[in-house]
Amino acid sequence: MNGPSHHPDDDLLLAYAAGGPGGVKALLVATHLAFCPDCRRRVAAFEAECGAWLETLPPSDGTDDGLTALLARLDDQPRSPAPPVPASRRRTVPLHNPTIPEPLRSRLGGPVEGFAWTPVSEGVDLSVWSQADGGSSVCLLRMAAGHPVPPHHHTAGEMLLVLKGGFRDEYGHFVRGDVASYVGDSDHHAVADTDGECLCLFLLDGPIEFLDAPATPPA
Fold first, then answer.
1. CB 161 within 8 A of CB 32
2. pLDDT per position as a tens digit, 20-73
3. What is the CB-side half-sphere exposure of residue 204 using CA atoms within 13 A?
4. Are 205 and 31 in contact (CB under 8 A)?
5. What is the pTM of this model?
6. In this structure, are 116 and 69 located in the same domain?
7. Does one domain contain both 122 and 71?
8. How do residues 148-167 score in pLDDT, each as one tens digit?
9. Is residue 168, in this structure, part of any structural domain at all?
10. How many domains are there within the chain?
11. Contacts for 142 with CB less than 8 Å, ≥ 6 apart
């Protein structure tokens, strides 16, 4: 079984390695890391880089405002490039991995099979379970085999981490462990693979607006 080929961008991995962002974005990144040895190595390299920065920082004059001042001082330091990542980040995902790996599994509080769901459209549901912080929220998105998500407009960022199955959209094919990221002020539609249900961790930085046009599955 092949591992992820779509990943969080380096800015998000670097922020995670440096201790932020927290909350639901950190949950999504950490869950992706459970699938992806390459991103785990990437984060480890960034953590080492951050540690090297801290060792070279000038001492505080005693008037700094905690973390804000530390980050400002970090910004003034030269940054060496992170180690290169192979052109293909595909790796083998251990077959014993559960459908929902840690740390997400503990946050769900129970098996997905017992969850309550809210219908969005035919074959597409959102979990009643959700968590939110800092303007971002996560829940689970479930798509029945071959069913499309209604076309919608992003007013802010959206991220999907595939936990089971796969889907296609305008940007490619996403399977278990992959992260799909979409910027604000963009339109999007997707359709689940035809060979089984697709389950995703669904993160929003703001509301989405459903469009009137019918969903057309990507080629």
1. yes
2. 767 999 999 999 999 999 999 999 998 887 765 555 555 555 555 544 554 555
3. 16
4. no
5. 0.77
6. no
7. no
8. 998 988 889 999 999 999 99
9. yes
10. 2
11. 117, 124, 125, 126, 127, 197, 198, 199, 200
